[in-house]
């Protein structure tokens, strides 16, 4: 029986083990992908540490997957065919019949969404099985290692920005220049926003400008709210950092009806003065990543406008080292596994 390599977690806390397994056949409604690349996202700790409620082991992590369809299960819609290159992100399946799904609020599915690499095995492998509902077509000519991080980090920043209410020409600030922020700056600039980048220290100013920011705000030396107000007030601030009280430091710099879009999973609260919300009708909004059509549109927009993730690339067999590199926070900026051709 032909076998494949997977990086498996056998129990909560790991370790990441390289394991040979038989290549599975796709059940009804699913496809098999020959994986070309898979990004390592910080949310993979939910799989490795087993902190996602109800997760079962063994499990293969990975929800930034790019692969080629190499087998179809029964009843896969005809738009999907063998040979297509597709992406699979975090949000793989929702029921489609509960009340939130009937309102197109798929992220709130009452039946429970299926998350790639948590509800079923993900992309740290030579092959994976994916529900057809998870598939996003990738644009022609976009290398798999470039596309992979866009399936989660790219999708989340792109989708939050295009749903922020900001219009071309508006001031939009990206708070944090890391895995999410370096993509957020590129998307905001290419969407036609007057883009400001906020980070600690003067040393990131050059990179921020290179990525497309028109303004750089050093949050260690200045008050971001004051600086944003001087620039006319932000229609939206995209908070990619993981510090709730630092996020709050921008609220006073929002324009009337401006929104603080929260995508950084901070553990500490965001202290919000009610008057700052009331005067100016400002708001603080969380943003969930998106479904497969959002991922497909993220990839297409990235190809069209030249948005590119800065990646450190490792072969699959060095997944443990790659994962630790992601955890260190020192990677510039996303870590991606590339499978053998
Ligand atoms: Zn992710
Ligand atoms: Zn549902």
Task: Offer a concise description of the structure.
The protein is α/β, with parallel strands linked by helices. Helices cover 23% and strands 28% of the residues.
Query: What is the overall silhouette?
Result: globular
Hetero groups = zinc ion
Can you tell me the CATH topology of the largest domain? Quinone Oxidoreductase, Chain A, domain 1
Number of strands: 17
Sheet with most strands:
7 strands, mixed
CATH class of the largest domain: Alpha Beta
Q: What structural class do the secondary elements suggest?
A: alpha/beta
Give the integer mean of the pLDDT values.
96
The CATH architecture classification of the largest domain is Alpha-Beta Complex
Order of helices and strands: EEEHEEEHEEEHHEHEHEHEHEHEHEHE
Uncertain runs are none
The structural domain count equals: 2
What Rg do the Cα atoms give?
20 Å
Helix content: 10-25%
Helix count equals 11
Q: N- to C-terminal separation?
A: 20 Å
CATH superfamily of the largest domain: Medium-chain alcohol dehydrogenases, catalytic domain
Beta-strand content estimate: 25-35%
Task: Please supply descriptive tags for the structure shown above.
single chain; 341 residues; alpha/beta; Quinone Oxidoreductase, Chain A, domain 1; Rossmann fold; 2 domains; six-stranded parallel β-sheet; binds zinc ion
